[in-house]
Amino acid sequence: xxxxxxxxxxxxxxxxxxxxxxxxxxxxxxxxxxxxxxxxxxxxxxxxxxxxxxxxxxxxxxxxxxxxxxxxxxxxxxxxxxxxxxxxxxxxxxxxxxxxxxxxxxxxxxxxxxxxxxxxxxxxxxxxxxxxxxxxxxxxxxxxxxxxxxxxxxxxxxxxxxxxxxxxxxxxxxxxxxxxxxxxxxxxxxxxxxxxxxxxxxxxxxxxxxxxxxxxxxxxxxxxxxxxxxxxxxxxxxxxxxxxxxxxxxxxxxxxx
Length: 257
Fold this sequence. Notes:
This protein has 257 residues and is an alpha/beta fold. It has ten helices and eight strands. It has helices at residues 41-47, 68-71, 79-92, 105-116, 137-145, 150-157, 165-174, 180-192, 237-240, 242-255, and strands at 3-6, 10-17, 27-30, 53-56, 98-103, 121-127, 206-211, 226-230.
């Protein structure tokens, strides 16, 4: 499992699949709140057949340990810090202009990166995303008072009611993979972020992958780009519809050649 020491983000883990190809950009995948690069593994395997892909574990998530000196624990985790970690990883690995793929909070990070460095982002694939996401009041209460129940709540509300039992069991079995204070910091970022006024400044092609059964993020007016609605899919698009994610990513990679 590759790790890299970044000057500002600390020691960061990432998953890498596929090979770099001349004239074709890499894809850099960014997970959502409280998650890790593992949420992309099925999609990564499919993308690797056609190109090169990296999935970051944001600071404090998965195998990426929060660096106290650089991040001041969870208090230092912000949307800007996540954006900069993604940019620093891409620059250190010499990815060049890339396609960014984000899920939920990760989509906010991807949009922020595309706004900050328009010459470095060739396209966006945004899963279960909107410029403003919000946090369900019941989830906010559990995050504050009973974090041990958050995974069960997400299994009930973030997956489609028609999700395969094996998908539901796998999600529950993964359990709490991120420290509770980091998860709370993530959802505070989600609660406070609103990129609606800046959406029109995105200069690259954008594909939105919406779950038809998403009960976490409501459809949003004014999104530019292609909007694809996936039937029988909830909020957890990367694990409920990895083939659809890979198809959109590969299409975007190919469109940039």
